[in-house]
């Protein structure tokens, strides 16, 4: 199993992580617009999501509620691949399955699995996986930005203070005291 650094951080830091597939460490987990987790390059994994939100604004409201409970952990929002990229994603998904089989056969695991998979998938797709990965990153960033804007709007509407570094101010800033 490959344990990403973001997963450890998510378990101890009040942040929202937007991703394209299944991850969980005992934190609030929701899928965007779906009842099951996406599987990175395909919108369907067959794994039921514990909760569903239909918009980035709903995700922001859930995150805001978690912050009000003063929990020290974060939230994970699983976002399906955009419909316009599903066909390309299917090619990458097939290559991923082949690369996983090869990794298993070669005994590759732990922190070596991700670099192996990325390189092998790139080889198998003749570089097409890079375009799909870029589409996932852009989509996740877009959803994350919409979620952040909605969260900031909630805080501003409530007249909440915002914090920049260690100093508290009224008004707006890049980093909100949640």
Provide a compact summary of the structure:
The protein contains five helices and six strands; from the N terminus they run αβββαβαααββ.
Secondary-structure blueprint of this entry?
Blueprint: H1 5-10, E1 16-19, E2 28-32, E3 52-53, H2 56-68, E4 75-78, H3 86-106, H4 113-124, H5 128-157, E5 162-164, E6 167-169
Parallel strand pairs: 1-4, 2-3, 2-4
Antiparallel strand pairs: 5-6
Helix pairs in contact: 2-5, 3-4
Could you describe the 3D structure shown?
The chain has helices spanning 5-10, 56-68, 86-106, 113-124, 128-157, and strands at residues 16-19, 28-32, 52-53, 75-78, 162-164, 167-169. It is α/β, with parallel strands linked by helices and 178 residues long. The strands form 2 sheets. It has a 4-stranded parallel beta sheet. It has a two-stranded antiparallel ribbon with strand order 5-6. Strand 5 (162-164) and strand 6 (167-169) form a beta hairpin. Helix 2 (56-68) packs across helix 5 (128-157). The two termini are 33 Å apart.
Query: What would you call the structural class?
Result: alpha/beta
List low-pLDDT spans: 162-178
The major pleated sheet works out as: 4 strands, parallel
How much beta, percentage-wise? 5-15%
Keywords:
single chain, 6 strands, alpha/beta, 12% strand, 178 residues
């Amino acid at each position: 199993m490959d344990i990403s650094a973001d997963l450890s951080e998510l378990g101890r830091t009040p942040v929202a992580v937007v991703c394209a597939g299944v991850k969980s460490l005992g934190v609030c987990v929701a899928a965007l617009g779906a009842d099951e987790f996406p599987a990175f390059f395909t919108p369907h994994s067959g794994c039921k999501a514990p909760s569903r939100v239909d918009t980035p604004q709903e995700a922001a409201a859930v995150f805001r509620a978690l912050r009000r409970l003063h929990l020290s952990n974060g939230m994970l929002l699983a976002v399906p691949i955009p419909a316009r990229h599903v066909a390309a994603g299917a090619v990458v998904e097939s290559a991923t399955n082949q690369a996983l089989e090869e990794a298993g056969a070669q005994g590759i695991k732990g922190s070596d699995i991700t670099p192996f998979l990325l390189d092998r998938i790139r080889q198998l797709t003749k570089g097409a996986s890079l375009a799909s990965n870029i589409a996932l990153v852009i989509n996740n960033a877009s959803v994350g930005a919409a979620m952040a804007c909605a969260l900031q709007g909630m805080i501003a509407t409530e007249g909440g203070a915002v914090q920049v570094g260690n100093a508290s101010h009224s008004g707006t800033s890049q980093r909100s005291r949640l």
